[in-house]
User: What shape does this take?
Amino acid sequence: MDAFDYQGTKSIVGIKIQLIDDDRAAYVSDPTHRLAILYDLIAPDITRFVHPPGVWNELRIVSDEGHVEYWLNGRKVLSFSHYEENFKKWIADSKYRNWTSFGLIPD
Assistant: This one.
């Protein structure tokens, strides 16, 4: 996998799903930093299916040829494609806008 250049440094960076205790983390007031979201890009408008403290949550990521799904406790909470216009807009509107090919490294 090739690294890309960001401000003079080589880095391999891609999208991530947030794993965090929404009730205890100080910075989850930003909706793009909550559990089971596309970190720092979007926060889907979903009903949260989060188990209470002391009960494990199950998170699953399905990725196939650029299409990605996030599942939380058996329910799909996010679905997107790396190649759709919405994804490109999320990147363009984010802090990652100057990162060449951010989120586009093949599966």
Notes: Strands lie at 4-6, 9-11, 59-64, 67-72, 75-81.
